Automatic annotation (TrEMBL), chains A, B:
GO terms for molecular function: hydroxymethylglutaryl-CoA lyase activity; metal ion binding. Keywords: Lyase, Metal-binding. Belongs to the HMG-CoA lyase family. The keyword Metal-binding applies. It comes from the Bacteria. CDD domains: DRE_TIM_HMGL. PANTHER family: HYDROXYMETHYLGLUTARYL-COA LYASE. It comes from Nocardioides lianchengensis. Transmembrane segments: none annotated. GO terms for biological process: ketone body biosynthetic process; L-leucine catabolic process. This is Hydroxymethylglutaryl-CoA lyase.
Amino acid sequence: MSADVPARVVLRDVGPRDGLQNEPPVPTAAKVELIEALGGTGLTEIEAVSYVHPRAIPQMADAAEVWATVAPRPEVRYSALVPNLVGARRALEAGFTDIEVVVSASRTHNLRNINRTPEESLAAIAEVIDLAHADGARCQVIVATAFGCPYEGEIPEDQVVGYAVRAVRAGADSICFGDTTGMGSPPRVRRLVGGFRDREPDHELALHLHDTRGTGMANLVAGLELGVERFDASVGGLGGCPYAPGASGNIATEEAVYLLHELGVETGVDLDHLLEVAATAERLVGRELPSRLLKAGPRTRLSPL
Amino acid sequence: MSADVPARVVLRDVGPRDGLQNEPPVPTAAKVELIEALGGTGLTEIEAVSYVHPRAIPQMADAAEVWATVAPRPEVRYSALVPNLVGARRALEAGFTDIEVVVSASRTHNLRNINRTPEESLAAIAEVIDLAHADGARCQVIVATAFGCPYEGEIPEDQVVGYAVRAVRAGADSICFGDTTGMGSPPRVRRLVGGFRDREPDHELALHLHDTRGTGMANLVAGLELGVERFDASVGGLGGCPYAPGASGNIATEEAVYLLHELGVETGVDLDHLLEVAATAERLVGRELPSRLLKAGPRTRLSPL
């Protein structure tokens, strides 16, 4: 292993938001149950909801109700994804102290998603960041399609890094490179993380990895070996790829925890407990989730003789 | 990437044998179809059948008929797994020039599987190797449970390496460390490959990796960075883990090819063609296979605007 491998990483579980957003709708109570269960596993960051328009994403229409019902834990940082100033106001008024906004590095993807160019999105994001800061909250900018676009294909790394740096200049507290449709590979991780570090060596950086093509864990190791300390993952591998029906989405949190612990990297997460929550997530959405570890159990779970 | 990463690796598809052995039985014609289809993808090694007793593994009862029906390609090396001298004679008489034998590094696992200690297995293996060599054939020794045992748990690396070195002394042309139940992780790959290379720096070495716990691709990269040039994989991720019902088994060949190509490592395999064969494999066994890439397609397959 590289000498840069951190001794400890922070995993943010995005299952309640990014995961459930790509599943058939579940009841409000199920979302609350999932968020509260995840908070008991040792995870210190949970992406809880998004304040998006219910016409755009009906799965998140009850965000306010979910968040009003959850009993938050003091040791967990909960975040909300917001699409714009209106959503940001709602999130901040609901008490969130961590919000996330998205800009796609692919012009085509950004235009199709929100009918804005990435430049127009970045201008709006600057206002969201100012609003968050005025409220004493933190704002992370997620650069989506950072590893490739389902429409355009390759997105040059300097274009991706360029948008990330502009977000930093606009005040983003954290940058997250999102592998929206699972097009990442270890060399792309190295070029992207390296390119950003060259420009912003000390800025907080996270990776949001998907396992749509089986490269998720190899990408995680590549990021880790570059010293990346923050990764998104989704309990059970909850969620899917919106561009490939039936395909996997986020890396599974328990698989990330298992691999990190095998690598000697601390996460603070109780793996057995998290596996129970993954089983709960599977029950809540009523379908078999893609996590392999959920089926097999950790290597310490031996067969009876 | 480490400077040791080879420019090209050999993938052996073990789907027709190791894969189908862990699926409900399929007709002889389906096995022939799969073997012949794999031979057209650019793969140069295929584990075709095993000559085991039909009471032990009914899925392979028609091995002789399968192999008599397949039209072999001159550019492909086909191998057969054999459990003992009787099986080895059958394989060699059928014309195989590559055979494989197995010894488990776990005493408990070996005793439960074939009622022999690993030492007794190694003595028998020496006779199989001699028989193969007398026939001008090659013999690979697969050291199973090399990364851990479903009954014993940890198997000390020096014990695993010790059996591998004894197999080399007995004339094994190639050693393959088998992650029988998917307990491998990158540090274990490094300790095992490093330990073997310390004793046998120039001997042919292969890794047989499973993805039962989501670590398969990270383990592949770890092996690659140590210069390992031979990996087993199974088209579609065909097969499962016999110790965890419903769990994944072998790494999927197309996911290995995809990742290797992304890493700039040649395989000689036509990925699109292999994905077609993976779809065929899925049809032949009549269940959804675990390969993620099979569902999503390669990153070059873009969405329509």
